[in-house]
Design a protein that fits this description.
The structure is a single chain. By secondary structure, the chain is an alpha/beta fold. The chain folds into 2 domains: about 100 residues, Sandwich (Immunoglobulin-like), CATH 2.60.40; about 240 residues, Zn-dependent exopeptidases (Aminopeptidase, 3-Layer(aba) Sandwich). The radius of gyration is 34 Å and the shape is elongated. Bound molecules: zinc ion. The site of zinc ion has 4 residues, from loops.
C-alpha cells in the first residue's frame, strides 16, 4: 500500500514535470515567435518561405513615368511627351491633368504600350477647352501588365501652359562692347546668354514656351543679317513675334557721356535700375502692364541683393495713365527710380523692335535690366551670377504677370511647390 502510494506520487510528480516542461517549451516558443514576428513552429521550412517572400518583395519594382516634357502646339493644344520606358511591363499609360489650383486630377485619355522592349517616344495631344492663357499640370500614370513583379507608381508632374513668348536678345555678337579695367563685356553677347537662360527657366519652372529671334551670335530675319538688319530693318525683330502672346527685347542700358559727372564706363551703383519700355499694344494690355511691373520690381530687388544697386529703385505703374514718357534725364538720373515707360516717335513707337511687335498686334517691351556703364554690373556679368539672377527675376515676373502660380525649382514628393 505504502509502495503504491509512493509509486502514484512519483508518477504524479513525473506527470506534473512533463506538463510543466511542455508548457515552458510552448511559452518559450511563443516568446520567440513574438520576438521574431511570426517565426513559425517549423523554423526551417517557414524561414525559407519568408526568404522567398522577401526576395519577391525586393524584386517588385515601382514603375512610374519620369522625364515628362511638353510641346505647346497652339493655344488650344498641348502635346505631352514621354519615353515608353518599362516596356513590356506597362500595358497602358493614363494621361492626367489638373488645372492650376484644383486638387483633383482629371484623366484625359489612355495610350497603349506596343509591348516591345526598345525605347520609343510616346505622346498625347491635349485639346484644351479654352484658348485662355492658363497653366496646367500633367502626369502620366501606368497600368501594369505583371502585377506580381511590378507596382504602379504615380507619375512625375510637370507644369505646362499654352502661353508663347517671343524673346529678342538685343543686338548681336560683340555689340556695345566695353573693355576697361580688365573686365570684358559686350551687350550683344550677354543678352544672348540671358535669353537662353530665361528660355530654360520659363519652360522648366513655369511651363512657359519661348522662342528667340536668334540662338547664336548672329541674327538673320527676312534676308537681313546683323548690321544689315539693325540698320534700317530692325522692326523685323519685333514682327518675328507674330502669333505669340508677348514680345520681350532683352538689353542692358548705358548712360550718356559723363552723366552725373562720372566717366561713362565708371558710373556709380546709385544709377543702377531697371527700365521697362512698353509698346503701344502693351500699354493697352493689363497682362503686359502686370508683367512689366512684376519684372521691374524683381530686377530691382535682385540687383540690390547682388550688391550692384541701391534699394527701392522701381516705381510701378498701376494703369496706362501712370506710365511716364521716357527721357534722358529719367534714364540717367541718380535720384530717379526704375519704372515702366513709353517712348513715341513720328511713326508710333520710337524703337523699331517695339514698333514691329505692335505692327503684328503683339504687346511688347524692351527690358533694360541694368546699366553696363556701372563697373560692378560688368563684374557680376563676368562671374556668371548675374545672368542667372536676372533670368530668375524675369521668369518670376512673367509668371506673376500672367497670373500663374509661382513655381520654384524646389521639388517636394515629385511635385513642384511654392
Ligand atoms: Zn541694347
Amino acid at each position: 500500500m505504502k509502495r503504491s502510494i509512493i509509486k502514484a506520487g512519483v508518477t504524479f510528480i513525473i506527470l506534473v514535470t512533463i506538463v510543466l516542461s511542455a508548457v515552458a517549451v510552448h511559452n518559450r516558443r511563443e516568446t520567440r515567435r513574438a520576438d521574431q514576428r511570426g517565426q513559425p513552429d517549423d523554423p526551417e521550412g517557414d524561414t525559407k518561405d519568408i526568404q522567398r517572400k522577401e526576395s519577391v518583395e525586393e524584386e517588385k519594382e515601382i514603375v512610374r513615368v519620369e522625364g515628362l516634357s511638353f510641346d505647346r502646339v497652339s493655344r488650344r493644344e498641348i502635346k505631352i511627351v514621354w519615353q515608353d520606358q518599362k516596356n513590356p511591363y506597362v500595358c497602358e499609360y493614363l494621361v492626367k491633368r489638373r488645372i492650376d489650383g484644383e486638387s483633383s486630377w482629371e484623366e484625359l485619355g489612355t495610350v497603349a504600350s506596343d509591348g516591345r522592349a526598345e525605347d520609343r517616344e510616346l505622346s498625347y495631344v491635349d485639346v484644351l477647352e479654352t484658348e485662355a492663357l492658363k497653366q496646367y499640370e500633367y502626369r502620366v500614370d501606368v497600368k501594369i501588365a505583371e502585377e506580381d513583379r511590378y507596382e504602379a507608381g504615380e507619375g512625375e508632374n510637370i507644369a505646362a501652359s499654352n502661353i508663347l513668348i517671343c524673346m529678342d536678345p538685343g543686338h548681336y555678337a560683340g555689340q556695345n562692347a566695353v573693355n576697361v579695367d580688365g573686365i570684358p563685356y559686350a551687350e550683344g553677347d550677354f543678352t544672348l546668354e540671358l535669353a537662353l537662360e530665361l528660355k530654360t527657366v520659363l519652360k522648366e519652372s513655369y511651363g512657359i514656351t519661348a522662342y528667340l529671334t536668334r540662338e547664336s551670335g548672329s541674327v538673320s530675319i527676312g534676308g537681313y543679317t546683323d548690321g544689315g538688319l539693325d540698320s534700317g530693318h530692325i522692326s523685323l525683330r519685333g514682327e518675328y513675334a507674330e502669333g505669340s502672346d508677348l514680345f520681350l527685347s532683352l538689353h542692358t542700358n548705358a548712360n550718356l557721356e559723363d552723366a552725373n559727372g562720372y566717366p561713362t564706363y565708371a558710373q556709380p551703383v546709385e544709377i543702377m535700375k531697371p527700365i521697362v519700355i512698353l509698346n503701344t499694344a502693351a500699354c493697352e494690355s493689363d497682362t503686359a502692364l502686370a508683367v512689366g511691373n512684376a519684372v521691374g520690381i524683381r530686377l530691382a530687388r535682385s540687383s540690390y541683393e547682388l550688391g550692384i544697386a541701391m534699394p527701392d529703385k522701381f516705381r510701378s505703374a498701376a494703369c496706362a495713365e501712370e506710365i511716364i514718357q521716357w527721357t534722358d534725364a529719367w534714364n540717367d538720373g541718380v535720384e530717379e527710380p526704375g519704372t515702366l515707360c513709353r517712348r513715341l516717335g513720328e511713326h508710333g513707337d520710337y524703337y523699331g523692335v517695339l514698333r514691329g511687335a505692335a505692327n503684328v498686334g503683339v504687346p511688347g517691351m524692351i527690358i533694360e535690366h541694368g546699366f553696363h556703364t556701372v563697373p560692378k554690373m560688368r563684374e557680376a556679368a563676368a562671374g556668371g551670377e548675374l545672368k542667372e539672377r536676372w533670368a530668375r527675376a524675369d521668369a518670376e515676373g512673367i509668371a506673376e504677370g500672367f497670373g500663374l502660380k509661382i513655381f520654384s525649382e524646389r521639388m517636394e514628393e515629385g511635385r513642384v511647390v511654392l
